């Protein structure tokens, strides 16, 4: 994996500092020895990366941090205060109950981004001018560097840069670009153990709507 630019480090660290309760930040800074819950991905500064981690793993991390901070408090406070952690644990929402106005996890970010990417393909010219192709090439280059889940971005960039050249963006027109985007998405689906999408259907899914008329 390639190194992130310094600005990227700062931006991700800033986002993390805003997103995670202070107790979790303290427990999982670079000096922490506590094992992280399964699925938590660290940023390059050693702090948990919310946009690289699922809601479920993030919840586990937050809970762990709350328990760690309350067990420290418990040893030095009254029994009334000691009843707090159970209350907190019981009232912690499950992943499916995360309010819509919370920062995105890796899955929500991914769904929103694929919607943007496939819709860009769906509205791409049937035959793209040299300028349009150049613009899209530039967009994909920067997108694959700046995507806020850095592990996703690194893998996506590596896939595009396959030495054979076979994964380079196909930008001559809508059909080629839409198919390429579908293959790119399928690469991630395979990596995550998800079912592959039938790329013959990409236009129905993202441009025309399904033939049965349910999108009309
Ligand atoms: C560039 C990129 C890299 C990513 N890398 C990672 C990663 O490394 N690790 C990680 O955990 N997550 C990653 N994600 C997120 C991941 O791909 C999913 O978005 C996330 O797991 C949510 O998945 P989902 O099952 O809800 O549907 P999504 O995979 O988000 O798909 C949304 C919808 O797109 C349609 N669809 C599915 N496959 C295709 C296809 N091949 N072509 C056209 N349409 C399709 C389906 O209708 C589906 O419901 C990445 C996202 C992006 C944009």
Protein described:
The chain is mainly α and 216 residues long. The protein is built from 10 helices and no strands. α3 runs antiparallel to α5, α6 packs across α10 (202-208) and α7 (130-146) crosses α8. Residues 1-31 and 78-93 have low confidence and may be disordered. Bound molecules: flavin-adenine dinucleotide (FAD). Flavin-adenine dinucleotide (FAD) binds at residues 106-107, 110-111, 113-114, 118, 147, 151-152, 155-156, 182, 185-186, 188-189, 192, 194, 197, 202, 205.
Task: Chart the SSEs and their pairings.
Elements: H1 6-19, H2 22-27, H3 55-74, H4 79-82, H5 84-91, H6 106-122, H7 130-146, H8 150-160, H9 174-191, H10 202-208
Helix pairs in contact: 3-5, 6-9, 6-10, 7-8
Flavin-adenine dinucleotide binds next to helix 6, helix 8, helix 9 and helix 10.
Which key features would you list for this structure?
mainly alpha; 10 helices; elongated; 216 residues; ALR/ERV; Four Helix Bundle (Hemerythrin (Met), subunit A); disordered N terminus; binds flavin-adenine dinucleotide
């Amino acid at each position: 994996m390639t190194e992130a630019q310094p600005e990227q480090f700062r931006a991700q660290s800033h986002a993390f500092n805003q997103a995670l309760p202070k107790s979790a930040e303290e427990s999982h800074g670079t000096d922490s020895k506590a094992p992280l819950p399964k699925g938590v991905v660290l940023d390059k500064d050693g702090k948990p990366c919310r946009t690289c981690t699922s809601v479920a793993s993030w919840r586990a991390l937050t809970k762990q941090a709350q328990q760690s901070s309350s067990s420290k408090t418990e040893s030095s406070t009254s029994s009334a205060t000691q009843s707090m952690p159970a209350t907190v644990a019981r009232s912690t929402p499950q992943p499916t109950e995360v309010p819509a106005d919370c920062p995105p996890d890796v899955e929500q970010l991914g769904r929103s981004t694929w919607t943007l990417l496939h819709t860009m393909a769906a509205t791409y010219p049937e035959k793209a001018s040299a300028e349009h192709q150049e613009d899209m090439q530039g967009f994909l280059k920067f997108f694959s560097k700046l995507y806020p889940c850095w592990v996703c971005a690194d893998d996506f960039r590596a896939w595009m840069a396959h030495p054979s050249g076979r994964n380079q963006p196909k930008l001559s027109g809508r059909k080629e670009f839409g198919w390429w985007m579908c293959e790119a998405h399928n690469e991630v689906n395979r990596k995550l153990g998800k079912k592959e999408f039938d790329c013959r259907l990409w236009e129905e899914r993202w441009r025309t709507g399904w033939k049965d008329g349910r999108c009309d």
